[in-house]
Amino acid sequence: MDPTKEVSIELLKGLLFENTMIKVDPQSISEETILFGEEGIGLDSLDALQMIVAVEKRFGIEIKDPTMARDALQSLKVLRDWIQLRLLSSPAS
Amino acid sequence: MITPQAYTPHGPSFRFVDHFEQAADGQRAVAHFHLDPGLWFFRDHFPGNPLMPAALLLESAAQAAGILWMSRAAEGSEAAPSTPLFVAGVDAMRVLGPAHPGDTLRTTVTLLKEFGTLAQFEVETTNAAGVVFRSRLTLSRQLKG
């Protein structure tokens, strides 16, 4: 895997706060915090799009399908594992 | 050449695209809008110092993005799509210069990401003096994203 594309929870939390309208204390977000919907911290589909564009740009992974995005963006831990899996399986990595 | 009227629901006094040309790749387009000195907003913005309001530079760019998205959706069909589009988000907006009566605005729009009911675009508007407006816009096919 490309070392410049190392995936950490802190890096993903940074992307989250830079690219969405999140209005909670960063300290309150754990790697397992549910991000979207009423069960989570209330991010919406526009926030999801912003995060997807940010992840694509940072890691060179294309996310085409809204269902795939919903799965990947459940929490920062799920997103980290999802990105790592794709980076490891990518021939360019 | 795409006819803007076919792809915008706006009435004539709120349509800020005169000509629209889509690139062959379908991802980019260029829209032109001539700032006729008689346009309604110049009278009061501002009296004696007419400038196109920043909100309308944004609106013009959003209309160009909307025409690009609608024209992509209409590919292969004879009728223009009837689903209205709405501005859902504006990021990294910069107004970099004034747009005066008599200018012709040239807006380059690039589709960054199409995602379900949302699409994000990069837009840049120039006049003869250079870049006057730049932003990243998100349009939605529904009022609540």
What would you note in describing this structure?
The complex is a heterodimer of chains A (93) and B (145). With 93 residues, chain A is mostly helical. Helix content of chain A is 51%, strand content 0%. Chain A has one domain: ACP-like (Non-ribosomal Peptide Synthetase Peptidyl Carrier Protein, Chain A, Orthogonal Bundle). In chain A, helix 1 packs across helix 2 (45-59). Chain B is mostly beta strands and 145 residues long. Chain B has one domain (4-140): Thiol Ester Dehydrase, Chain A. Chain B has a 6-stranded antiparallel β-sheet, covered by helices on one side. Chain B is globular and about 45 Å long. The N and C termini of chain B lie far apart (31 Å). Chains A and B meet through helix 2 of A and strand 3 and strand 4 of B.
Task: Put the structure in a nutshell.
Chain A has helices at about 10-20, 45-60, 65-70, 75-90. In chain A, α1 packs across α2 (about 45-60).
Order of helices and strands of chain A: HHHH
Main interface: chain pair and counts:
A-B, 11 and 13 residues
Q: Helix amount of chain A, in percent?
A: 40-55%
Judging from the principal axes of the Cα atoms, what is the shape of chain A?
Answer: globular
Total domain units of chain A: 1
Percent range of helical residues of chain B: 10-25%
Strand segment tally of chain A: 0
Main sheet properties of chain A: none
**End-to-end span of chain B in angstroms?**
31 Å
User: Quaternary arrangement of the chains shown?
Assistant: heterodimer
Structural class by sheet pairing and helices of chain A = mainly alpha
Number of strands of chain B: 6
CATH superfamily of chain A: ACP-like
- Give the helix tally of chain B: 1
Rg result of chain B = 15 Å
Average per-residue pLDDT of chain A, rounded, comes to 88
**Architecture (CATH level 2) name of chain B:** Roll
Mean pLDDT of chain B comes to 92
Radius of gyration of chain A: 13 Å
Give the name of the CATH architecture of chain A: Orthogonal Bundle
